[in-house]
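Hello,

I think I submitted the ribulose-5-phosphate job twice by accident. Can you confirm which output corresponds to this input? Input:
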Amino acid sequence: MIKIAPSILAADFSKLGEEVREVEAAGADWIHIDVMDGHFVPNISFGAVVMDAIRPLTNLPFDVHLMIENADRYIEDFAKAGADYITVHVEASPHLHRTIQLIRSFGVKPGVVLNPHTPVEAILPILEDIDLVLFMTVNPGFGGQKFIDSVVPKVEQLSKIIRDKGLSIDIEIDGGINEETIIPCAKAGANVFVAGSAIYSKPDRAAALQKIKKAGEEAIS
Ligand SMILES: O=C(CO)[C@H](O)[C@H](O)COP(=O)(O)O
Ligand SMILES: [Fe+2]
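Support: Only one job matched these inputs. Its output is below.
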């Protein structure tokens, strides 16, 4: 099954509630929440207070992508604001195993994120402790960037490892996803796809979302 997680980073912040409701009605599976601190990435987005404000508006899972340093300090805030998944960057997590345990201690599903250049080997020791791996297919920090296709072999590599080990881990792709770039990623074994500008920049969000989802489903059928 292909899941689509619209990124509200690309939404109109002046009417964020409506923007969330619109993609839910359009068939979104998760809501992707990009948290940026201006340190780990060269941009600042929003924090747990904003997420808390939109939490009552939808029952869809909140997929919180932390692009921040010192994630441990903020995990409780995001858990209390209603996160279903919290993903942390391997590159920003010197005590990754501890961070994963901390996320789980709040009843939230933990995941790890790999930047485009970070090898899959970096997460092999903690694979059995997580529910989700997120592959960045752009350099994190901004929406609307071009998909980096050299990440696709890493997705294939991890899918095989997960299959061989008999694990149940979602593989998510984030950055530059549209109805074309979803195809190689779905074929490589990914099942959750973030899409920001490819949905929110279109006048008909429902049509855009469904087109991306259909392309992913056809790729694996
Ligand atoms: O994590 C992110 C950027 O760091 C965003 O989730 C990602 O860029 C989605 O936006 P788009 O689909 O427009 O590329
Ligand atoms: Fe993201």
